[in-house]
Amino acid sequence: MILHSASRKLAVAGLLSAAVVVAGCSSSSSSSSSAPAASASSSPSATSSATGTANVAYASSLQYLNEKVASPAFTAATGDGFSGTGNSSGTLEADIASGEISPNVFESVGGDNITPLEPKFTKWYIPYAGTSMVIAYNPKSKYASQFKAYADGSKPLSGLFSTLLQTPGLKLGRTDPNTDPQGRDFIYMLELAQSYYHLPSDTVAKILGTSNFGSASSSQIYAESSLDSTLESGQLDASSAFVTQAVELHLDYIPLPTAINLGSAALASTYSTAKVKLANGSTKSGSPQVIDITAIGTPTPAAIAFIKYTLSAAGLAQYKQGGFSLITPTVVGDSSAVPADITSELGS
């Protein structure tokens, strides 16, 4: 999962080339919609007319891929429209459960944001891609040279946690662990780093500025949808990020070893030793970071088409170009409830 600068450029080039498959598609920071492109019917794989719109609720970390790459390519390939809403996975889960939003597809970081919706809204989900944690930094920060030294390996990475991230006045950004998997992942990563580098037991508390890791009131906490732009604007020196966001958005970042980055399925038992007690009293444990997809409600033709496209060779290639690791798609839950057109893409 560690990508060097040359790899990042290739990955972004691949994404951008895919993004121009269909011209004129619009996007926004939280939601977007695209009508079927006028030229879609001329594509050999497109339907002659639109059959509907895939209304997709997705984790904000998938915003670039969905809005810039997947949605125009999906419309060109199928003739269906796309309407997207991005937010933290936990917030989307709550909004679906309350009826605040009514998507027909849900893409979540972690199946634990889908299972609470079972069996009323869905009975299954499919993991298909993985990512890992990095620390992104602003190249114009007054600490940029120090961050770069950790990124290129000229300084031992333990110092990032024992010294730099604890520097008074350093502005660090992260997301709410109560609603966003990335917010929890960042804390898990810090806990794993504290153990891995044999650092003092109060290291994580000093970095977070609190011993109450589940608190949502920290000045470090930002909405996932705005965290990257806040970093790029110079308001933050560093922030949590998935490596895939760093690749897609050209962010400078510090790669982290697999022992702490939550990117290896083989280290699931190690990751599970990191825990966060949330504000509601529940405790969550670390796990490999996986992207899951499901249909919400009775699967519509457009929802089925979008999930099928996402799991197809073309769809998975977009994730690979964006820095994701690929997982063989398999059903978690009631496989008999999965539409046949989606089942045909499993195990590929």
Order of helices and strands: HEEHEHEEEHHEHHHEHEHHEEEHHEEH
Within CATH, the superfamily of the largest domain carries the name: Periplasmic binding protein-like II
- Main β-sheet: number of strands, strand sense, barrel status? 8 strands, mixed
Global Rg? 20 Å
What's the number of domains?
2
Mean pLDDT: 87
Which percent band covers the strand fraction? 15-25%
**Overall strand count:** 14
* Alpha-beta content class: alpha+beta
Descriptive overview:
The strands form 3 sheets. Strands 1, 2, 3, 4, 5, 12, 13 and 14 form an 8-stranded mixed sheet that branches. The protein has a 4-stranded mixed sheet with strand order 7-8-6-9, with helices on both faces. With 348 residues, it is of the alpha+beta class. Mean pLDDT is 87; it is low at 1-50. The longest helix has 16 residues, at 63-78. It has 2 domains: 5-131 and 289-343, Periplasmic binding protein-like II (D-Maltodextrin-Binding Protein, domain 2); 136-285, 3-Layer(aba) Sandwich (D-Maltodextrin-Binding Protein, domain 2). Helices cover 35% and strands 18% of the residues. It has 14 helices and 14 strands. The chain starts with a helix and ends in a 5-residue tail after the last helix.
